[in-house]
Design brief:
Layout lengths: L10 H4 L12 H8 L4 E5 L6 H12 L23 E5 L8 H19 L10 H16 L3 E6 L3 H4 L5 H20 L4 E8 L5 H4 L6 E3 L14 H7 L1 H7 L3 H8 L12 H9 L15 H9 L10 E4 H5 L8 H8 L3 E8 L2 E7 L3 H15 L8 H9 L2 H13 L15 H15 L3 E7 L2 E8 L5 E10 L7 H9 L11 E10 L4 E10 L6
Parallel strand pairs: 1-4, 1-5, 2-3, 3-4, 11-12
Antiparallel strand pairs: 6-8, 7-8, 9-10, 10-11, 12-13
Helix pairs in contact: 4-5, 5-7, 16-19, 17-18
């Protein structure tokens, strides 16, 4: 059984015959891309195989034929032609100032000069001219046009995304470097920039009008990540060894769509097999989405909307540091994916949702913990309440949940006046637990705030939230369920059906009313 290339981003190391690592062949797509010389951009979530793909391209352009034995490209590329490759990677460390960025750029230029046997004739402090000189000298020495590969081009900006001033400083510093590429066109054969996010061309790539974005081009949808066929073929022995249920594997780690065939998260697949087929939150646990949570908080985002967002093609494409669209950021970071494409009035509109169970459950668990002052709120009471059909325990679990929201969450805003805020807290709680539920559940009479349903429909809870001013308005939530007859949607299918009205007082910033009733169903004993 071949070894798993955990954490390895170097193509030569993976292809070392003595090591015997699994390699999913991406050279067919690499060949299609490099046969069309030009300037390209690719956005994919972190740990999705971008760095390995760039290193694969580097090995191809350097003519290292011995590494490609048995791969698609082996007899389809002219290995006699070798090109100088300049590779810039911003993946290492954090960049927190202009000085950090300058030092990082100087180190990258020095590293490329040393590898190519060149020396900058300008003062090192003149970063822009040193980079330009590096390109020209490489062209002159090797008598071939230069290949430029940039990995994590956007990381210095994302490291500072919650501080607009610092993020703008990073963007402007990178803009000067990327502008050199535009000025070096006669010396360049091929360029590929990769990263998580796509910043607008005007703000970062001014002048690079010929930069082609292949992030949502169907032909390159599987350029990173593993297809189902890849998993079956390349991990066949591992599948057998772990006795894997393929449908469960799909639900947990597949589901990423870039306007083509869906792909698995490669990091999840490798860790899944390394842990003998244990389903866990591998990918999401390696990141720190705190900046996303902070942006969600600032924009008072309605969390249940994450299940079904609509966004235009223009808005999904890019954003800027002073104009962050949370939907775009969540998609590019890998927390949402494209589920459907519609055309409305000649405009493309994308329907976004969670890619899989891992992201839906883990992201909401993170959001939930952020919302609470007591991160140790027990998850079992609500599970037990549903299991034991104990509405008193259900009520106590919900009271404990909302009582744990810190007072600071209500400071300098009026979120306590919005039912959507409380629905968001409940949504993240349920999603983090992995409980099956529907937010904004549509009926012919309106929308139910949240419906909880057990998989076998043995129990269904129809829940309505209301924010009220005074005690005398109590009962409005359950009254609305009755008047609109929301419960009718489940009377024919549920065995036990409960309607629950939960009310929050603006002054108390907590639950001040909790009422429930059991509704007779067609399946009642």
């Amino acid at each position: 059984m071949k070894k798993l290339p955990l954490g390895i981003q170097t193509f030569a190391k993976i292809r070392d015959t003595e090591e015997n690592y699994v390699y999913v062949d991406k050279t067919k797509l690499a060949l299609e891309l490099i046969n069309n010389s030009g300037y390209y951009f690719l956005s994919r979530p972190r740990r999705f195989g971008k760095s390995l793909f760039l290193d694969t391209l580097k090995a191809i352009f350097e003519g290292r034929k011995e590494l490609f034995s048995g791969l698609y490209i082996e007899d389809k590329w002219d290995w006699s032609r070798q090109y100088p490759v300049i590779k810039l990677s911003f993946g290492a460390g954090l960049v927190r100032s202009q000085k950090d960025l300058d030092n990082s750029l100087l180190w990258l230029i020095d590293e490329n000069q040393e590898r190519l046997g060149l020396q900058c004739k300008y003062y090192k402090e003149d970063i822009k001219n040193c980079f330009l000189d590096l390109i020209k000298q490489a062209y002159q020495k090797y008598q071939q046009q230069v290949v430029i590969l940039v990995d994590e081009y956007d990381k210095p900006i994302l490291d500072n995304i919650t501080d607009t001033d610092f993020a703008t400083q990073m963007r402007d510093g990178l803009k000067h470097i990327y502008s050199v590429i535009k000025d070096s066109d006669p010396y360049i054969k091929f360029v590929l920039l990769t990263g998580v996010s796509k910043f607008s061309k005007v703000s970062l790539f001014s002048g690079l009008n010929n930069l082609k974005d292949i992030s949502l081009v169907k032909d390159y949808a599987t350029i990173c990540g593993y297809t189902h066929a890849d998993v079956l073929q390349s991990f066949h022995a591992h599948l057998l060894n772990a006795d894997v249920n393929l449908e469960q594997l799909r639900n947990w780690y597949n589901g990423y769509h870039f306007l083509g065939e869906g792909v698995y998260n490669p990091y999840d697949i490798l860790l899944f097999f390394d842990n003998h087929g244990e389903y866990r939150n591998y990918w999401i646990d390696t990141g720190n989405p705190s900046f996303l949570i902070e942006i969600l908080r600032k924009k008072v985002f309605f969390i249940p909307d994450l299940d079904n967002l609509s966004i235009s093609e223009a808005d999904l494409g890019s954003f800027d540091v002073d104009d962050i669209k949370i939907e775009t950021l969540l998609f590019q970071a890998g927390y949402l994916t494209i589920k459907e494409v519609k055309t409305i009035f000649n405009q493309r509109v994308y329907q976004l949702s969670y890619p899989n169970l891992e992201v839906r459950s883990a992201l909401n668990d993170i959001i939930f913990k952020y919302l609470l002052s007591d991160h140790s709120i027990a998850k079992l009471p609500l599970f037990n309440a549903i299991l034991e059909r104990d509405m008193e325990q259900f009520e106590n679990a919900v009271y404990e949940l909302f009582a744990s929201i810190p007072y600071n969450n209500y400071v300098n805003n009026d979120i306590q006046n919005y039912e959507g805020y409380y629905a968001s807290v409940m949504y993240s709680y349920l999603a983090g637990l992995g409980i099956q539920f529907i937010a904004e559940d549509v009926t012919h009479k309106g929308r139910i705030d949240i419906t909880i349903a057990t998989p076998d429909m043995s129990q269904v809870y129809v829940i309505e939230f209301k924010v009220i001013d005074k005690e005398k308005h109590k009962g409005n939530a359950i009254t609305q369920i009755k008047q609109q007859k929301y419960y009718e949607k489940y009377q024919a299918t549920a065995k036990l059906l409960y309607i629950v009205g939960i009310e929050f007082c603006k002054m108390d910033k907590n639950i001040c009313g909790f009422e429930w009733e059991q509704v007779v169903t067609d399946n009642s004993a």
